[in-house]
């Protein structure tokens, strides 16, 4: 929320108070855009905090491991010093004599294992097969055609759905394709949602949007946006 545009927030609050309880479609879209911008900013801040915490823990572990390594080296040097002073003394009574092995008793005889008794199980009786119920009479063809026509008439028009963009894609588009500007991203996506032709949308991306930004190093992210646009037009 720290990076959000304060003027937009004040303007939206003023518009909401002046609406006298009447919520328009334009006001709903502005609220949705403000919510998405706050969510993206929160996720980016959480990732930055997690990265800072990880770097701090790695530095603490490296500082703790350094004294332990020097202590191990000192112990190795001390062991080498004592090893040079050790001498092998001769045994006064000659080499040690081998110890006689104890005599083990023979293993006990194994008793024959009785054969298991197999119990005969009764086979389950097959379940009775239910008799088929008589089919209901089919309705007249005129009734079927009338119902089908009514279903067709009740469907919504051929209006295209809005482009479906997930949260991870939205973060990548804002950061890489629109140089971190949530407002520019929202303006372009809103314009795409108003277009009724795939060719018109591609021409808008190539000739209007791309010249204002440098997408040379983000070809994979650009292709992801083009794939989502193609899905909107069932390409």
**SSE string, helices as H and strands as E:** HHHHHHH
Radius of gyration: 40 Å
User: Taking all residues together, what is the mean pLDDT?
Assistant: 75
Strand content: under 5%
* N-C termini distance: 37 Å
Helix content: 55-70%
Structural class estimated from helices and strands: mainly alpha
Number of helices: 7
**DSSP E strands, number:** 0
Could you list the spans in which at least 5 consecutive residues all have pLDDT below 50? 85-89, 149-158
Shape assignment:
flat
What about the largest sheet? none
Q: Can you walk me through this structure?
A:
About 6% of the residues have low confidence. The radius of gyration is 40 Å and the shape is flat. It is 58% helix and 0% strand. The longest helix has 60 residues. Among the domains are: 65 residues, no CATH class; 66 residues. With 235 residues, the protein is mostly helical.
Q: Main attributes?
A:
58% helix, single chain, 235 residues, mainly alpha
